[in-house]
């Protein structure tokens, strides 16, 4: 378990991120894709149902033993909470109510955030949109591991630990490499979330609150649905920095696996991304893709050519190379 990774640095490139240019080429050939832009009117009902299911589940888990509670959090609650995190991802692109009603999207983000236990919907939007616009930027794109992470977790066992600790890196990495002052909406998000948490503890108990938070953390680490964190942008094939996955876990993750399609067309809701692939299949079928998020986790840990260093990076604009 101590084999070191073969890479000793990130993959530095001096080209623009590939999605804007490919978007232009695809739209020139298939202008009908523009008809797929806009919010999905069914999305709010699906995500809202997930929130309701989690709230109702609290009255079941409050009397469970700790082993059963943790097992249910991993196998059920964590999956729902991870799906709600990806609902927040959709909402960050205003795909719940459309660009014309931004505050509706923000408020619904607060609602989808509730079972997750930690306030994140507004902060996620703030950093995620920059990830799209400045993909690979050494400072702005906080999706990329820090140099310290890459150096510390450079063995097989180290990568295993890094996967388990992913939720904490995703929470704290932006605060370290690209800190931003909290906005008014972030403060409101925090107040709403803490009020909900307090209500859960008061009316249902600490076990119910633990079920929500433990599920969120477990499903962001060593868990099949968390495989998308690594599958999306870690370089499994040289020269390719974004990868899609077309397997069944897309059914419970708002098609986040269609990741090349999403980065090419972030204004298309997840439910319509398969149609993007169908229309422009010659652009996507020829690119490397993943067939299993579980296999992604296994290969990331066991393959010495892959690890935290396996990311494409670009010098921050304005910095000397």
TrEMBL record:
Family matches, as InterPro entries: DES1/DES2 (IPR011388), FA_desaturase_dom (IPR005804), Sphingolipid_d4-desaturase_N (IPR013866)
Keywords: Lipid metabolism, Membrane, Oxidoreductase, Transmembrane, Transmembrane helix
GO CC entries: membrane
Pfam families: FA_desaturase, Lipid_DES
Domain Sphingolipid delta4-desaturase N-terminal: 5-43
Keyword flag Protein biosynthesis: no
A GO MF label: sphingolipid delta-4 desaturase activity
The enzyme's E.C. designation: 1.14.19.17
Cell compartment(s), UniProt: Membrane
Entries under CDD domains matching the protein: Delta4-sphingolipid-FADS-like (cd03508)
Principal subcellular localization: membrane
Sequence intervals crossing the membrane: 43-61, 67-87, 107-124, 157-175
Membrane topology of the entry: Multi-pass membrane protein
One of the GO BP terms on file: ceramide biosynthetic process
Family of the protein in this entry: Belongs to the fatty acid desaturase type 1 family. DEGS subfamily.
Listed name of the protein: sphingolipid 4-desaturase
UniProt source species: Drosophila busckii (Fruit fly)
């Amino acid at each position: 378990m101590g084999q070191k990774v073969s890479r000793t640095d990130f993959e530095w490139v001096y080209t623009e991120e590939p999605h804007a240019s490919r978007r232009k080429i695809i739209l020139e050939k298939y202008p009908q894709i523009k008809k797929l832009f806009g919010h999905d009117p069914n999305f709010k009902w699906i995500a809202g149902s997930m929130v309701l299911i989690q709230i109702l589940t609290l009255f079941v888990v409050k009397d469970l033993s700790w082993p059963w509670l943790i097992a249910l959090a991993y196998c059920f609650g964590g999956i729902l909470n991870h799906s709600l995190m990806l609902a927040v991802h959709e909402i960050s692109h205003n795909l719940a109510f459309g660009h014309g009603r931004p505050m509706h999207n923000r408020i619904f983000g607060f609602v989808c955030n509730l079972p997750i236990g930690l306030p994140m919907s507004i902060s996620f939007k703030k950093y995620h949109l920059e990830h799209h616009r400045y993909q690979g930027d050494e400072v702005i794109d906080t999706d990329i591991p820090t140099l310290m992470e890459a150096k510390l977790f450079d063995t097989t066992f180290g990568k295993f630990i890094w996967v388990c600790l992913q939720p904490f890196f995703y929470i704290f990495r932006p605060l370290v490499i690209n800190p931003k002052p909290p906005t008014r909406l972030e403060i409101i998000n925090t107040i709403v979330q803490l009020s909900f948490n307090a209500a859960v503890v008061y009316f249902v108990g600490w076990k119910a609150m633990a079920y929500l938070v433990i599920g969120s953390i477990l499903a962001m680490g060593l868990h099949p649905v968390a495989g998308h964190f690594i599958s999306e942008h870690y370089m499994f094939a040289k020269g390719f920095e974004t990868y899609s996955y077309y397997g069944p876990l897309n059914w419970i993750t708002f098609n986040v696996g269609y990741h090349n399609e999403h980065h090419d067309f972030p204004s298309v809701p997840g439910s319509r991304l398969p149609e993007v692939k169908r229309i422009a299949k010659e652009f996507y079928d020829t690119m490397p893709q993943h067939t299993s998020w579980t296999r992604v986790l296994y290969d990331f840990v066991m393959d010495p050519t892959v690890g935290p260093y396996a990311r494409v990076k670009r010098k921050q604009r304005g910095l000397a190379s």
